[in-house]
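Q: Structure for this?
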Amino acid sequence: MSEMPPTMNITEQKIEPRANGSLRAYLRSIAAIVWKDLAAEFRSRELIGAMLVFAALVIVVFNFALELDIRTRETVTSGVLWVTFAFAGTLGLNRSMAIEKDRGCLDGLLLAPVDRSAIYFGKAIGNLFFMLIVEAIILPMYSVLYNVNLFQPGLIFVILLGSIGYTAVGTLLASMAVQARTRDVLLPILLFPVLIPLLLAAVKASNGFLQGFEIAEIMPWVNIMIAYDVIFIAVAFMVFDFVVEE
Amino acid sequence: MIFQEGPADTLNYMIAGYAVILGAIGLYIVNIILRFRNLRQDEALLDEIDAEHA
Amino acid sequence: MEHKPKALTVLNWLTGAVFVVALYIVLIWAPQEAIMGDVQRVFYFHVSAGWVGALAFLVTAIVGGIYLARGEQRWDRVAQASVEIGVVFAFINIVTGSIWARPIWNTWWTWDPRLVTATIMELIYIAYMMLRRGIEDPDRRARFGAVYSIVGFISVPLTFLSIRIFRTIHPIVVGSSDPAALGAFDMTVDMRVAFFFSLFTFTLLYITLLWHRLRLQVKMEKIEERKLRALSS
């Protein structure tokens, strides 16, 4: 997976995540990357701030775009929520990867004796945290504005699953988009078509939980989401090297 | 749309469909031919330039 | 590949002839459908175009994977060629699907799983091309294309599946309640012959176009190289 010349044995040992003591090193490098992102964000708060403002605006715009009487509101809530998350998410992904590229952090990370996939997981988990934080603020905001109780464990679970899949694919695609000339517009264009099964399933599952459907009815959607998450985390893990190699 | 006597008259739609099919394929083939032609013109120009330099 | 290889000339003629035969078969030889009438004849080439669109996508993803593994440029050339052809045929598939739907369901669009999935696939194709266009370095362009085509290709069956499940729970309001039955009809033996012959014809067409487009790509690269040399001298 890493193109190290065969003479560098010591560094090779550190890089192979399967060797015994290095699993801890591998996990530690992931944690380091996540912590770096969280710490940087905590200081500047620019990413989460931007995502939040954007999400709030989207919700407000929806209020005027869709005439929501009490009954329609119930059926439309999950759709509105996920559209909001999807759009705010692209903001976060774009910024997160752009920061890496623009400040040259990515080059630094690549020089470090860290398996490339650790960089992927680190960034993805960091992005996931940001997305979850934004969602955690949007949920009460939406609940208050639309007088709907969104604090149900089923819904929370679906949001978690969906965010995992979203950031798994999004981090991979954003890493590519950020290296292109048309970087800002490109990410949504790349991401959304590929995201459709996840979004569709997320909306249906969320709706199912919100409206109190039978678990049996909701399960197919949850299964799709789980399958999606597993498949794309695996795919991203395998191809990420090719996205960051120089 | 079940007609009791005979099949529906949808000939126009069929024609439209085949126009799209043949049109799209045809346009693509023409596009490739034109690109080939452009390249050949470029090639001829480059040959001239090379001949001048030689 | 300066001069056209003999095999390609033969292929050209063969494909042309087969195509003419196929036209005869679907337009004249095949029986008229009892209820829908002539528009049903569009079905043969509609599905065949969809088949080529999907095949082209599969090929792109596979050669993308091979390129990632080997780094040889010729695999990327195949990917580029295949994507172009795929875009054209997927477009044909979508539009003929719409044309077929109109007289039958009295609407230009139905949210049929196959039609929607075909459209999403087309969008992924276009996104692929936009991604490539935005990257300068040829190797990176090829690599990113490969990665995206793989991601895109894997997402398509998932998309189809999720829309299918969606449709069984929410049948289309306008039209049949069976979501898989956009304009369903029973195929007679003759129709099956026409159908499979169309598939064969379009596959042959795909291979021919692919070959031509590959030759074009090689020539393009040669000319680019010569231009660069001429400019720098």
